[in-house]
């Protein structure tokens, strides 16, 4: 797939089935994440891959957070099922190092770039992905389960798998609404 075609036409797909990327394809996805822009070479990234039993562990973590908040049963049921919407979920974490020139925000952004790059690499290899978030990724219970410290943040859950449908058309957007010149 041509790089510009990928950049201009990528869509997310929520319907994801087996197989998940593995072997070289998965390595390429991780390597793409590791090519995110990185001020001062701080490598502010952690990628926690869940599949099979890992999805159950992720579900258990989310349920613990929902229960800690005394959430309604329907909410607990929803988070319990959430990780099983794809055969693989990568939790993308910004691992923040204190640095006089590189504030935490830049490191969070770098981890966000990594998530986007990984989604792109998945699509480029015939897989698909959906970047999800939700309030649970900010929850202390979830942070503790993933060993986050200080200003570390989970920037998203990247759901990956094989597309279960064709992607929707890219929305037409008027460039002039988004672009200004100084
Ligand atoms: C940080 C971040 C978090 C997101 N979280 C969610 C989410 O929890 N649920 C959701 O439906 N879409 C979420 N999205 C948006 C989808 O990943 C996706 O981009 C959106 O559905 C538009 O589809 P497209 O990528 O094909 O344009 C999130 C996007 C970003 C950048």
| Molecular shape | globular
The structure class reads alpha+beta
Helix content: 25-40%
| CATH fold descriptor | NADH Oxidase
- Distance N terminus to C terminus? 35 Å
The H-level CATH homologous superfamily, spelled out, is: NADH Oxidase
Unreliable stretches (pLDDT < 50, length at least 5) are: none
Roughly what is the average pLDDT, rounded to an integer?
Answer: 97
Specify the number of helices. 6
Taking the sheet with the most strands, its summary is: 5 strands, antiparallel
CATH architecture: 3-Layer(aba) Sandwich
Molecules bound to protein: flavin mononucleotide
Report on this structure.
- This protein has six helices and five strands.
- By secondary structure, it is an alpha+beta fold.
- It has a single domain (3-177), classed as NADH Oxidase (3-Layer(aba) Sandwich), CATH 3.40.109.
- Strands 1, 2, 3, 4 and 5 form a five-stranded antiparallel beta sheet that branches.
- It is globular, with a radius of gyration of 17 Å.
- The N and C termini lie far apart (35 Å).
- Bound molecules: flavin mononucleotide.
- Flavin mononucleotide is lined by residues 11-12, 130-134, 156.
- InterPro entries: NAD(P)H_nitroreductase, Nitroreductase, Nitroreductase-like, YdjA-like.
- Belongs to the nitroreductase family.
- This is Putative NAD(P)H nitroreductase.
Secondary-structure map with pairings?
Blueprint: H1 3-9, E1 16-17, H2 23-33, E2 45-50, H3 53-68, H4 73-81, E3 88-94, H5 104-124, E4 128-132, H6 140-145, E5 153-163
Antiparallel strand pairs: 1-5, 2-3, 3-5, 4-5
Helix pairs in contact: 2-5, 3-4
Bound molecules: flavin mononucleotide (FMN).
Flavin mononucleotide (FMN) binds next to β4.
